[in-house]
Design a protein that fits this description.
Chain lengths: 330, 330
């Protein structure tokens, strides 16, 4: 197994990326191609201990930032770590690609360079969504803002395949984000999608309302990229604002400070449950090769876990299963 | 000032509704028409102390439930408390109407019986949205699931007028729910709406992402009814699931139980901040007379506060300001 890693993407690149790669190589016995500015990456690597034949550097002199226009950057910054990495993936030099860089550029690059699986109309961004019952997969988390019912159906099928095979969720339950539980509820898009999902052979459990999303009743949460992005960001925003409220409440007086101290292990646990770093990265679904987006503020732990997830993504042959499923439908 | 109250709507009708009405009459020196089954309402009223000439009962033998189809129920259940109450409002018997009953039916009834303000294309449901900085107004919270840019612009204008005049927010900041801060971000609907809002004379602060919604940076949060409903319900769901997590963490062992005990006053405060009952009801915006939707599980306090809000809605002449604003535009 050989994984290609964007060494220059994300807020903490390259040092945390390199550290995460070294941890992954030591822990999982894999090979890695680290893409980025050779001299900088090399300097970071000299600080670490690892089997030297397991990590090779692929030089790329440029970097795509969050300020770049995603599609333009993919076409013009040809020597960026992301473009060079994705091209290496497309040429079969590795089994998967992971980047903590620009989400939009990774998606655009996945589509332009690696391309979509035949029969797949749109590739989707996903997010591992922490819930009261573990994690769910949210598809689409922001790639496709204007969707047709058929796209959402494909998101549901791909998400279902991923959760079943990579996350070991048996017969994953698929829910459609909607404004009511009944079939008749929703806008034009969700009403038509409901009909398609009802007739499909996935385990469709019906509509899930906003209130139900954090409960974890659905293993796969399906929405168009606009709604999915609002769901993702609002969830983060609510967690942040409630914990901010708690924090200032804890510091209110001596009594509350002691109370908070006594609760420290429990609060730490809850924080960990909501920590994106524990869940690795988010798979892109619908491209011809496995691609994982790591969180922009990924540290070494997040990168290490993201690489593990990418390994499963590749090993479990998700792409092939999606391909087979698509050819069955056509 | 005379307020018409649906005595039979909501989970705790009629007893809590009647109690809330009595509190409002005693506290605010207003008159109330209580609509519902005469004998039942009368029986509840005999339990209470109030100036008897201030509350009159308007008999209505039927009730619209959440199981009824909203539009059908409004047309067919002609002797329901909601229809009788809205007709009384339309005939000028009172200055405003409040109900804790079916949201859909109240909206349908508002449109069919009271009708839209001239020039207003769609009436909107709103919600008082608690944030880190007080409250914001979310428009539309679920009435119009497929929207045109012009509808959203009218929601923004009406919400702005309401926040300025009823909630005393000076030059209220209006934000458009979107998936990115930049003007170029979003789906077709939000991109076109951005352009309309930019050219309008409200205090448009641009797009707000999901993460920013709970921060309270915008006084008026504008979205189509599908997205607005997801925002509202997900916010509730996140609050519930985080507090559930905290609760079970607090009970984990003796040490954590003591910690929770020490924090009790602070936790109570946070709970109160998120308590819908403190904020009264949600105004319907766009109908010819003031209508307020109280929460389905409203108790006496929520009804009392909802009536206060409805009084402000009527007293501040919001409908007239909206009408003038619309005639200026045409």
């Amino acid at each position: 197994m050989k994984i290609i890693v964007d060494g220059m993407g994300g807020d903490n690149a390259p040092s945390e990326i390199v550290k995460g790669v070294v941890d992954a190589v030591n822990d999982f016995n894999i090979e890695v191609i680290l893409v980025g500015k050779e001299d900088i990456i090399e300097k970071e690597l000299t600080k670490c201990k690892y089997p030297e034949d397991k990590i090779e550097i692929l030089n790329a002199t440029d970097v795509i930032t969050n300020e770049d226009d995603p599609s333009l950057a993919i076409r013009r910054k040809r020597d960026s770590s992301m473009v060079v990495g994705l091209k290496a993936l497309n040429e079969g030099l590795g089994d998967g690609f992971i980047s903590a860089g620009s989400t939009g550029a990774l998606l655009a690059g996945g589509l332009f360079i690696v391309k979509r699986i035949e029969g797949i109309e749109r590739a989707a961004l996903t997010t591992i969504y922490p819930t009261g019952k573990g994690v769910s997969l949210l598809v689409d988390a922001g790639a496709n803002v204007d969707c047709k019912p058929e796209y959402l159906k494909q998101f549901a099928v791909m998400g279902s395949i991923y959760m079943e095979n990579v996350m070991d969720r048996n017969n994953p339950k698929v829910g459609l984000v909607n404004i009511g539980a009944e079939e008749s509820k929703g806008n034009q898009l969700t009403k038509e999608t409901f009909n398609l999902l009802k007739k499909s052979d996935i385990n469709f459990i019906g509509n899930i309302e906003g209130r139900e999303i954090p409960s974890g009743n659905a293993d796969v949460i399906v929405a168009d990229g606009f709604v999915g992005n609002i769901v993702l960001k609002l969830t983060e925003g609510m967690a942040i604002s409630i914990f901010d409220l708690l924090k200032s409440a804890f510091y209110e007086n001596t009594k509350s400070k002691i109370g908070a101290l006594l609760l420290k292990p429990q609060l730490k646990n809850i924080n960990k449950m909501m920590d994106y770093r524990e869940y690795g990265g988010a798979p892109l679904l619908g491209t011809k090769m496995p691609i994982v987006k790591a969180h922009g503020s990924s540290d070494a732990l997040a990168i290490r876990n993201g690489i593990k997830q990418l390994m499963d993504f590749a090993e479990k042959d998700i792409i092939k299963i999606i391909e087979e499923n698509m050819s069955l439908k056509n």
